[in-house]
């Protein structure tokens, strides 16, 4: 599929692979889950082998530094080494400890994990994981609900499409409406969510502490993973401040970095980030960072795509061309499960 896209791009003279240079730009990579459980109900997992292949490729080709190091270099206006990459993880999934942490140690790679603080060691699930749990654990074959429409659930691909589409619709709901909708969905699907289910999925504070002592840094990612621009200012302040405080109390060190859930923010969110003393905040906008035109409150990141070819394409700064092509070739994409997943993951 990638070959097809590159062929079209070449034909349209969009790419100039031989002369392209993105050496001076910095890439912050975003990962979520690293696990071999491919039919899991949570986010798209990146298989452990693929993650290791990423690390092998990056260590060979790029200069990997910590987010702290990058921010210090930017702050002190020092030159950032060519081909610099920073690794980050969002949410705080347990498989970061079980699968990613041993590999990060093996390759001596620093990383920052952004924690949805209230979910750590609590047994609770984020709202998006609740939707996934319901969709993947129901025995019904289709859903029909007022205000939602009709969805098929008769294959894993249909379940994935349904899960992604419901999530996208719920993102526009306010918090109260969203939670009552999820309760109703659980009812319709006849699925009970155990209050301990999050213990299997999310990190415990002991795991966080162990990683903190072994080269992994931690940032805040709110308490409950809401869409911040949907909240009142008071709620936004609570979500960000309490998340930071909870990590600081557990690790006894200052939390300097923040990641916007779903990459969503507005000027009010940025003001609160500055007010609370964060040194930087990261987005999910699939771009490299140009060290001459950066904003520490909205540092771009790109996804750690499962397919190494995609990752290479984005590291070469061809992401924007890729998405233009995707728009043109929409028909191919909706018929292809792996492409569909990439597009649905885009924020
Ligand atoms: Zn998140």
Automatic annotation (TrEMBL):
Keywords: Signal. Coiled coil: none annotated. GO terms for molecular function: hydrolase activity, acting on carbon-nitrogen (but not peptide) bonds. It is found in: Secreted. One of its GO terms (biological process) is carbohydrate metabolic process. Residues 83-347 form the NodB homology domain. GO terms for cellular component: extracellular region. Pfam families: Polysacc_deac_1. Its main location: secreted. InterPro entries: Glyco_hydro/deAcase_b/a-brl, NODB_dom, Polysacch_Deacetylase. SUPFAM superfamilies: Glycoside hydrolase/deacetylase. PANTHER family: POLY-BETA-1,6-N-ACETYL-D-GLUCOSAMINE N-DEACETYLASE, PTHR34216. This is Polysaccharide deacetylase. It comes from Candidatus Methanofastidiosum methylothiophilum.
């Amino acid at each position: 599929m990638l070959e097809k896209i590159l062929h079209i791009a070449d034909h349209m003279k969009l790419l100039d692979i031989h002369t392209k240079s993105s050496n001076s730009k910095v890439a912050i990579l975003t990962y979520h889950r690293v696990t071999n459980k491919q039919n899991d109900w949570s986010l798209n997992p990146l298989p452990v082998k693929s993650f290791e292949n990423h690390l092998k490729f990056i260590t060979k080709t790029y200069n990997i530094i910590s987010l702290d190091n990058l921010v210090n270099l930017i702050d002190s206006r020092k030159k950032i080494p060519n081909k610099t990459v920073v690794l980050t993880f969002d949410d705080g999934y347990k498989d970061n400890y079980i699968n990613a942490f041993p590999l990060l140690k093996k390759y001596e790679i620093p990383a920052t994990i952004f924690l949805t603080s209230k979910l750590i060691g609590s047994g609770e699930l984020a709202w998006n994981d609740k939707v996934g749990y319901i969709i993947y654990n129901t025995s019904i074959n289709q859903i029909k609900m007022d205000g939602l429409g009709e969805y098929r659930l008769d294959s894993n691909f249909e379940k994935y499409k349904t899960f992604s589409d419901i999530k996208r619709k719920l993102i526009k709901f306010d918090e109260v409406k969203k939670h009552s909708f999820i309760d109703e969905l659980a009812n319709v699907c006849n699925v009970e969510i155990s209050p301990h289910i999050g213990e299997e999925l999310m990190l415990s504070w002991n795991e966080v502490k162990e990683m903190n002592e072994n080269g992994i840094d931690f940032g805040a990612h709110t308490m409950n993973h809401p869409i911040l621009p949907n909240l009142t200012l008071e709620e936004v302040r609570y979500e960000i401040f309490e998340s930071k405080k909870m990590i600081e109390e557990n690790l006894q060190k200052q939390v300097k970095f923040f990641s916007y859930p779903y990459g969503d923010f507005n000027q009010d969110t940025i003001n609160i980030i500055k007010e609370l003393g964060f040194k930087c905040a990261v987005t999910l906008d699939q771009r490299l960072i140009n060290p001459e035109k950066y904003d520490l409150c909205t540092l771009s990141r790109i996804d750690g795509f499962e397919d190494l070819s995609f990752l290479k394409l984005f590291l070469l700064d061809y992401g924007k061309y890729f998405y233009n092509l995707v728009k043109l070739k929409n028909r191919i994409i909706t018929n292809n499960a792996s492409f569909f997943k990439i597009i649905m993951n885009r924020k």
